[in-house]
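Quick review question:
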């Protein structure tokens, strides 16, 4: 097993369990008929080595930590020319169609998902390990208390599966919470039946005051002609993606 170093300053907890690493790597379904796979934050390559065993895919990695980059170059000659050094959130990834996989740093996982949404037509699949609470929230259906902004925005364009839970003891250093592995596979929605920027704004505004009915939570956006819709008597967590689309269209017409 390769040595593992801690990167607390990057919010990263390194996986040390071989079986879990293999299980995550094998969770890629191949949905979307892609060949290229990008691993975010490979660290010392615990997951990378199992990805490289899959000869059907072409693996690249993106890593921000210089020591980890040097370690990967030394121990994984197969990655020659495929190690991207830098911050994933700041990079322009030069891949046409690719899946994303990784043990995402807890402190930037939401930002990674927003990046995925922005490039969704190039990313048919995502498999990732994140904080269990966040994973459950993303995979939650309408009506649950965990259902939130990312649940709606991601499920508008991806089918989401909660795959399994990972205990704290399999990491160095061990986090204070459990982790969860989820899989996102691109659905058939090419575009929403409403203005996308307005849709995002409505969803975010609605959940920012999730305890209020939408009539009150969206006061800054609502107008008299549409306020009579029964949708405004519900709370954000009760609405499906389709109902948020309908709500956005109602608000857009009233402008």
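Suggested answer, residue by residue:
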């Amino acid at each position: 097993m390769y040595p593992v170093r801690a990167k607390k300053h990057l919010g990263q907890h390194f996986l040390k369990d071989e079986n879990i690493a293999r299980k995550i790597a094998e969770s890629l379904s191949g949905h979307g008929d892609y060949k290229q796979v990008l691993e975010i934050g490979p660290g010392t390559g615990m997951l990378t080595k199992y990805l490289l065993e899959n000869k059907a895919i072409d693996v690249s990695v993106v890593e921000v930590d210089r020591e980890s980059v040097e370690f990967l170059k030394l121990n994984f000659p197969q990655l020659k020319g495929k190690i991207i050094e830098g911050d994933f959130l700041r990079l322009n990834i030069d891949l046409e169609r690719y899946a994303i996989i990784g043990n995402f740093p807890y402190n930037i996982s939401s930002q990674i998902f927003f990046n995925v949404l922005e490039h969704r037509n190039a990313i048919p699949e995502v498999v990732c390990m994140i904080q269990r609470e966040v994973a459950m929230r993303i995979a939650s259906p309408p009506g649950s208390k965990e259902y939130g902004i990312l649940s709606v925005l991601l499920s508008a364009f991806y089918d989401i599966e909660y795959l399994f839970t990972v205990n704290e003891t399999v990491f160095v250093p061990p986090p204070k919470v459990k982790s969860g592995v989820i899989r996102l596979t691109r659905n058939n929605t090419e575009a929403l039946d409403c203005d996308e920027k307005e849709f995002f704004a409505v969803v975010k505004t609605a959940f920012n005051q999730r305890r209020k009915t939408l009539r009150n939570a969206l006061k800054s956006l609502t107008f008299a002609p549409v306020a009579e819709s029964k949708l405004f008597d519900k709370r954000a967590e009760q609405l499906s993606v389709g109902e948020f689309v309908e709500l956005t269209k109602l608000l857009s017409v009233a402008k």
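Why it works: Residues 1-10 have pLDDT under 50 and may be disordered. DSSP finds nine helices and nine strands in the chain.
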